């Protein structure tokens, strides 16, 4: 049994079938990529996984429990964190203060700015936040205002903000979108390092094949709302159906 099991999920927007009979079984500890052309239903699927959208039919089980009908913060507390396409950090706060926010959100299901001081006095949380900043090579920048960080560092911070919650499952929606090659390669290295050093399952939605083939152990190709094939990267590369649907060949 996988850590995340999606069974017979359907979602319509009016007359449009955005997701049709989606079945997915994500193994514990893997890096699983979901790829597919524009409009294939990738973001819709992700939104179902994080509780932002409720499917018309089907079930989504995480760690043996249903996520359907739960609020996004409840799903977060169950152990699912996500990295957004655009970094969601607090520009006026320092790097270190930003790290405290997700700790608080995970514990209390909400975040209030004035609580920063109280949480910052909790030794365990400070140590965890510092360790995580070291892991993403950001500890030297802990006192910097987040808005002054480079784009790549903002992304690192955001990743660290997800990881400090110690999620069991990390969802990444195009983590390298809009990045230059060097930053993309840094992110690949960072994610590989995170995956190897922690027991985190990752689901990555990604357009960039270089990223997909550098990270994924398993790949599901989504086309017109339904999984077309699921296989290892080696097999996906040469798959005729994939070439046809995804690469337009
Ligand atoms: P992808 O992320 O793979 O590009 P999406 O999941 O964003 O695809 O979209 C799948 C299909 O559903 C597209 O045809 C899109 O236009 C449609 N769609 C997505 N969200 C909505 C919505 N909120 N209302 C209506 N149609 C939507
Ligand atoms: Mg999308």
TrEMBL record:
Looking up Pfam families in the UniProt record yields: ABC_tran
Domain named ABC transporter: which ranges? 4-249
SUPFAM superfamilies hit by this protein: P-loop containing nucleoside triphosphate hydrolases
Gene Ontology CC annotation, any one: plasma membrane
Entry keyword annotation includes Oxidoreductase:
no
A GO molecular function term, named singly, is: L-phenylalanine transmembrane transporter activity
Q: What is this protein called?
A: Amino acid/amide ABC transporter ATP-binding protein 1 (HAAT family)
List, alphabetically, the PANTHER family matched.
AMINO ACID ABC TRANSPORTER ATP-BINDING PROTEIN, CONSERVED COMPONENT OF ABC TRANSPORTER FOR NATURAL AMINO ACIDS-RELATED
Keyword Nucleotide-binding included in the entry's annotation: yes
Which keywords does UniProt give here?
Answer: ATP-binding, Nucleotide-binding, Transport
Segments passing through the bilayer: none
Q: Which GO terms describe its biological process?
A: D-alanine transmembrane transport; L-alanine transport; L-isoleucine import across plasma membrane; L-valine import across plasma membrane
């Amino acid at each position: 049994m996988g850590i995340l099991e999606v069974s017979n999920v359907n979602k319509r927007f009016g007359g449009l079938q955005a997701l049709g009979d989606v079945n997915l079984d994500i193994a514990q500890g893997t890096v699983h990529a979901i790829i597919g052309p524009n409009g294939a239903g990738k973001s819709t699927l992700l939104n179902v996984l994080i509780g932002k959208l409720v499917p018309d039919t089907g079930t989504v089980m995480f760690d043996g429990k249903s996520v359907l009908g739960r609020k996004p913060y409840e799903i977060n507390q169950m152990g699912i964190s996500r990295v957004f396409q655009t970094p969601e950090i607090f520009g006026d706060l320092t790097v270190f203060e930003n790290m405290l926010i997700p700790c608080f959100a995970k514990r209390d299901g909400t975040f209030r700015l004035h609580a920063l001081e109280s949480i910052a006095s909790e030794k365990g949380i400070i140590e965890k936040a510092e360790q995580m900043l070291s892991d993403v090579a950001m500890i030297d920048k802990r006192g910097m205002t987040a808005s002054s960080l480079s784009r790549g560092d903002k992304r690192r911070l955001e990743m660290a903000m997800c990881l400090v919650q110690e999620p069991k499952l990390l969802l990444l929606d195009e983590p390298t979108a809009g990045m230059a090659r060097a930053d993309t390669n840094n992110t690949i290295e960072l994610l590989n390092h995170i995956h190897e050093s922690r027991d985190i399952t990752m689901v990555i939605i990604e357009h960039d094949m270089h990223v997909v083939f550098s990270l994924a152990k398993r790949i599901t190709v989504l086309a017109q709302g339904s999984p077309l094939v699921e296989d290892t990267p080696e097999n996906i590369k040469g798959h005729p159906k994939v070439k046809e649907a995804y690469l337009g060949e």
